[in-house]
């Protein structure tokens, strides 16, 4: 796990994929009210938007900052990403070229209530997260690029991003130790800086 930070990229990529599938499941199985309550729960009797949720509201054109002032329509618009499962472009990754994972079906467990879909695994170094890690200028640039990754389209054809899923901070935490290059040496003892995957 020393060179390339491939394990960090794999973990971040697959966390985003898992979160997207969980969000699709919850939107399919819950009404607007309970879904909104899960996304913006009351803590000690107070309901408050997080900074990432405020960014989503701004993208939606909603200027309110108090969750209790949103109309039912605004709550629904905020809570539902309405991901079109035929327009998902974010696959899970594995650091292995396993041909039998090129097309799979997920959601076959009875707990998923019949919500299956076809997807695939890509090789880890092909993840967009690897490209962002390799090409980002600094942590703020990487954060912005991660936030703007398009993972799917919604049912009206609009992009759904990692930030819409509320994942930017979690991705940064997983990648934090991968930002800096690794100092290694060649077989001849020459110092080498190794950063990100091939």
From TrEMBL:
UniProt GO MF annotations: ATP binding; formate-tetrahydrofolate ligase activity
Ligase is among the record's keywords: yes
Gene3D superfamilies per UniProt: Domain 2, N(10)-formyltetrahydrofolate synthetase, P-loop containing nucleotide triphosphate hydrolases
Family matches, as Pfam families: FTHFS
Keyword set, alphabetical order: ATP-binding, Ligase, Nucleotide-binding, One-carbon metabolism
One GO process term, biological-process aspect: one-carbon metabolic process
Domain of life: Eukaryota
Keyword ATP-binding: yes
Protein name: Tetrahydrofolate synthase
Native organism: Mythimna unipuncta
Top-level taxonomy: Eukaryota, Metazoa, Ecdysozoa, Arthropoda, Hexapoda
